[in-house]
Amino acid sequence: MITMIAAAGENNELGKNNDLLWHLPDDFKRFKQLTTGHHIIMGRKTFESFPKPLPNRTHIIITRNKDYKKEGAIVVQTLEDAFNIAKDDPKPYIIGGGEIYKIGLPFAQKIELTRVHETFKDADTFFPEFSNEKWELISEEEHPKDEKHKYSFTYETWVRK
Fold first, then answer.
1. Euclidean distance between CA atoms 126 and 54, whole angstroms
2. Which residues constitute the domain of residue 75?
3. What does pTM read for this prediction?
4. CB proximity list for 108: less than 8 A, separation 6 or greater
5. What are the residues facing 120 on neighbouring strands?
6. How many domains does the chain fold into?
7. Averaged pLDDT in 10-residue chunks for the chain of 161 residues
8. Which residues, at least 6 apart from 74, have a Cβ–Cβ distance to it below 8 Å?
9. Contact 1/90 with Cβ under 8 angstroms?
10. In 3D, which of 24, 54, 19, 13 has the Cα closest to residue 36?
11. How far apart are CA 47 and CA 58, in angstroms?
């Protein structure tokens, strides 16, 4: 089951200048818990935004640059190649960025979306629009803002109808 996992603002904002617009420690913990032990599929810029490869996950980087190589990651040129490498993983995750989410949406069966309850005017990357006609919200878990979280957010799990 191909799953997209993301955190997005009220207007689907993902980030700016290859960085997140917020710091939500509990969302990071959830991301780690869900993706550990699985293949994570991402674009080059998303991979380069990490200080180092994330532990206990197989990193698959999609880039048009045929000469791109990174220790600790598998580099491919297409989403189809990424899916082929992850074919034995029952739950590979597409983790971004915006362009990879856009091309991955037609293939995804599930979306784990952290909806950050704020709008961010200076975002330059966005999660793709998806419709309630094709997707069903099967669970929601609200998280209020607190001393560690500047914004309230909701964990939403969507499945393709």
1. 23
2. 3-160
3. 0.96
4. 2, 3, 4, 94, 160
5. none
6. 1
7. 98 94 97 98 95 95 95 96 98 97 98 98 96 96 97 98 96
8. 58, 59, 60, 61, 85
9. yes
10. 54
11. 12
Q: How far is CA 2 from the centre of its chain?
A: 12
CA 98/CA 100 separation, integer angstroms? 6
Q: Dig out the tokens for 85 from the structure.
A: 């490498």
Tell me which residue has tokens 């000469």.
67
- Residue 18, amino acid: N
List the structure tokens of 146.
């607190």
74-92 in b/e burial notation, b at 16+ Cβ within 10 A?
A: ebbeebeebbebbeebeeb
- Distance CA(85)–CA(77), nearest Å, equals 12
CATH of the domain at 153: 3.40.430.10
105 residue type, one letter: L
- Confirm if 9 and 116 have CB atoms less than 8 A apart: yes
The reported pLDDT for the residue numbered 54 is 95
